[in-house]
Every structure is written in structure tokens, then in C-alpha cells.
Amino acid sequence: MDISSKRPSYFLLVLIFAQFAGTTLWLSGNAVVGQIESELGVKLGGWLTSSVQLGFIIGTLMNAIFAVPERVLSSRLFLASALLGALANLSVTVIPLNVSTVLLSRFLTGLFLAGIYPIGMKIAADWYGKDLGRAMGYLVGALVLGKAFPYLLKGISFELPWKEFLFCISVISFVGGLLLWTLLPDKSLPSQRNKFSVKALSVLFKVPKLRAAAFGYFGHMWELYTFWTFLPIIWKIYAASHSEYQINIPMATFSIIAIGFLGCWLGGLLSLKFGSGKIALIQLILSAVCCVILPFCIDSSFVLFTILMFIWGVTVVGDSPQFSTLVSRFALPERRGSIITLVTSIGFAITIVSIQLIDFLLSKFPSNLSVFFILCLGPLVGFWASAKQIYKE
């Protein structure tokens, strides 16, 4: 029987909202980092994001090692992760404030996000067949909006204290998890309880198409989160060279992250006609071009610079759902959740390297956009490693 016949009409809408709500936790700390740094009297730099990424990596690895997605119903895992992630996000508001507690709070938030982002993708993969690329486009688009949302709140409410701000974000996350658990059906768990097997997960590196899709995703990840993390810095560097413009940095950051939804949505629609492989590769190369062009636009008009940033915002994440679709498609069905989780974990490990590298380079060259040249290496290597295998998919 076609699985879509058992899928409620509101299925995708609820899943999109839950994914959006859960991922608002991700960059919530970044949106209020200025207030936190003022209270601490120190700069946190790229470590705020890297702590989340490290927690997410450990969480996804634990899920993969213990085959948690194959042992726990997806809706229950998502709800528990949304609740615990919300509490971790709030923990910094009730414990003594210092650098260690802030970074621990962000680490734990990332740890529980491991049960939100990849599990949302697993739910989509379980319930969608040929139109998975379209569903993934909406789903990753929701992820994009969720990560941009804290900057929107910050941009329109400058006076909101950071503790109340984090409380609002945590409530949104929990509500999303609760709605998903309440309204969406679960696919039954495998009849045989899977145990961790290196051999089973080694298929990631043995199946050519799966390996190609994964390496394309890894190249994309080198660029994506570093771009999002340092977007406020890019805008600050540009604004410092153009005193004639009054730029609302949080709103500008929100706009560029949020426009990524368009890349995910359009990419999902176009994938139905042209295939996920072509759409992913085109966006991967376009985002690399933006990396190269950026330093040459420091003296350009606000309109031209904004257009470049919008194009980059669209393409830097628009390839993500299509790479995720390909990974889901080529993964062993009985190991799909763990393989998706493992690929995601490796991808996020890569982001820590690129974030810390750019953070270091900016400490040496604080007003030089040329440091972002290095981000194009990810898309270029990802394209080289994946194009031959996935172009026709």
C-alpha cells in the first residue's frame, strides 16, 4: 500500500512547524551574545556556536551508536529532545553566570538538538517516496527559518532582556515537539532491534552513490554554519566602511538566513523535474562563487552588497535538503535513521573546524573580508567528490 494513503493531510504542515520550533534553540544564544558578553566582561567568539555543534555531534553519534532512531518511536524522541533542549537553553538563566556555564548550556542544547533535526528528516523519509525532495525542501526550509527566528526577535525587540528572550525561545521549542507528538502518526519500529554495527554503518563509505552524496553534504557543511555564525560580523565590517548607511545588524542577519528558505523550497520543487543531484550541485557552485566575490564587494553600494548576500543566503543552504534526500534514498532502509544521523554528525564536526579557523583569522585580520575566501574550499571539494555519481539522480 502507498504510504501516502496513511499520511494525514496536515502531516507536512505539522512536521514543518515542529522542525521550525525545535531549531529556534540553535542560534538563540548567538542572538543575545552581546548582552551575555557584557555581563561576563569577555568575548565568546566562535565558541558559542562551536559548543552547540560539539553537543550536536556527540548527541548524533550516541544516537547512531545505540541505534536510538530504530529503538524509540520518532515522535517520542522528538518530544523528549524538544523538552530537554528547551530546559538546557533555559539553564543558563538560573545557574551562576560564567563562561563555563554559558558554554555548557549551549553544549547541552546541541546535545538534545540531535533528537530534533535528523529525526525530523527521518520522519519525512519514512513517509515520503518519490516526492521526498520536495518534502525535504520544506523541512530544511523550516530549519532555516527556525535558526533565523531568534535574530528576528532580537531585531524587533532590542530591549527584551536576554533571560526573557531565551524563555520565549524555549517555550516555542517545546510547543513544536508537543504538537508533533500529539498529531503525527509513527511508523512501526523494526521487528528486530538493531544493535550497533560498524559493518552496517560502513556502508556509508562502500556504496558509491551514498558516499558521493555524503561527501557533497560534507563540503556544503564546511561553508554553511560558518557563514551563518559570522553573518553579523560580515555586516559589521561592511557597515564600518559605509557610515552613510544605518544597518540593523540583527534584522540584516535574520533576512539573509531566512531567505535560505527560498532556496530550499525552490530547490525542492525543481528537484521533481531535474533531480536532486543537479539542483544540489548547481547551488553548491553558486555559493562558492559568492565566497570568492564577497571581498571585492566591500566598497559596493548597499543594494549591490545586499543582493550578493541574498544570493549567498539562498544557495548556501538550498543544496542541503537535496543532499539529505540523496543520503536518505541511498541508505539501507533498516539503517536509514542511523546513517542519516551519522552523516549529519560528521558534517557538524566539520563545521567546528571551519568556524574556529575563521574565528582565528578574524582575530588576526578583524576587518578583512578576504578571510572568507577559505569557505569556498568546502563547496569546491564537495562538488569534485560528488558530481560524477549524483548528477543524474
Automatic annotation (TrEMBL):
<feature type="transmembrane region" description="Helical">
    <location>
        <begin position="247"/>
        <end position="272"/>
    </location>
</feature>
<keyword id="KW-0472">Membrane</keyword>
<feature type="transmembrane region" description="Helical">
    <location>
        <begin position="77"/>
        <end position="97"/>
    </location>
</feature>
<feature type="transmembrane region" description="Helical">
    <location>
        <begin position="47"/>
        <end position="68"/>
    </location>
</feature>
<feature type="transmembrane region" description="Helical">
    <location>
        <begin position="9"/>
        <end position="27"/>
    </location>
</feature>
<feature type="transmembrane region" description="Helical">
    <location>
        <begin position="370"/>
        <end position="387"/>
    </location>
</feature>
<dbReference type="InterPro" id="IPR011701">
    <property type="entry name" value="MFS"/>
</dbReference>
<keyword id="KW-0812">Transmembrane</keyword>
<feature type="transmembrane region" description="Helical">
    <location>
        <begin position="339"/>
        <end position="358"/>
    </location>
</feature>
<feature type="domain" description="Major facilitator superfamily (MFS) profile">
    <location>
        <begin position="1"/>
        <end position="393"/>
    </location>
</feature>
<dbReference type="Pfam" id="PF07690">
    <property type="entry name" value="MFS_1"/>
</dbReference>
<feature type="transmembrane region" description="Helical">
    <location>
        <begin position="279"/>
        <end position="296"/>
    </location>
</feature>
<keyword id="KW-1133">Transmembrane helix</keyword>
<feature type="transmembrane region" description="Helical">
    <location>
        <begin position="135"/>
        <end position="153"/>
    </location>
</feature>
<feature type="transmembrane region" description="Helical">
    <location>
        <begin position="214"/>
        <end position="235"/>
    </location>
</feature>
<dbReference type="InterPro" id="IPR020846">
    <property type="entry name" value="MFS_dom"/>
</dbReference>
<feature type="transmembrane region" description="Helical">
    <location>
        <begin position="165"/>
        <end position="184"/>
    </location>
</feature>
<feature type="transmembrane region" description="Helical">
    <location>
        <begin position="302"/>
        <end position="318"/>
    </location>
</feature>
<feature type="transmembrane region" description="Helical">
    <location>
        <begin position="103"/>
        <end position="123"/>
    </location>
</feature>
<protein>
    <recommendedName>
        <fullName>Major facilitator superfamily (MFS) profile domain-containing protein</fullName>
    </recommendedName>
</protein>
<dbReference type="InterPro" id="IPR036259">
    <property type="entry name" value="MFS_trans_sf"/>
</dbReference>
